[in-house]
Amino acid sequence: MAIGFMTWAERWFPDAFIFVAIAVVVSLAAPANGAAPPVISRAFGDGFWSLVPFTMLMVFVVIGGYVVASSAPAQELIRSFATIPDDRRQCVLATGLYA
């Protein structure tokens, strides 16, 4: 099942190269619209570094979630919740409700 999802994602999600190619096209087209190269460079730098606070927030969310989920009390709670469903349908329903 995981290989099927991976194949689907590789087919439909764009590769990072596409975003680089778009950035290059935009940076080459910007002077045609009258923007000076230093202004283009500054806009790119300011836009890139404005993503750092959000990125760090997401890092803390992921690390914090891992720390909580791997603690002994959370492991016991997860194990107790995992014993409730009896079949696949109930597993899907329980996962949706727990999430």
Structure description:
The chain is an all-alpha fold and 99 residues long. The protein has helices at residues 2-12, 16-29, 37-49, 52-69, 72-82, 88-98. It folds into two domains: 1-50, no CATH class; 53-99, no CATH class. It contains six helices and no strands. The chain is elongated, with a radius of gyration of 23 Å.
- SS class: mainly alpha
Number of helices: 6
Shape descriptor reads elongated
Number of domains: 2
Amount of beta strand: under 5%
End-to-end gap: 21 Å
Fraction of helical residues = over 70%
Q: Main sheet, how many strands, which sense, barrel?
A: none
- Counting DSSP E segments of at least 2 residues, the number of strands comes to 0
How are helices and strands ordered from N to C?
HHHHHH
Low-confidence stretches: none
Radius of gyration: 23 Å
Question: Secondary structure elements and their pairing?
Answer:
Elements: H1 2-12, H2 16-29, H3 37-49, H4 52-69, H5 72-82, H6 88-98
Which properties best describe this structure?
99 residues, 6 helices
Task: Describe this structure in a few short sentences.
By secondary structure, the protein is mainly α.
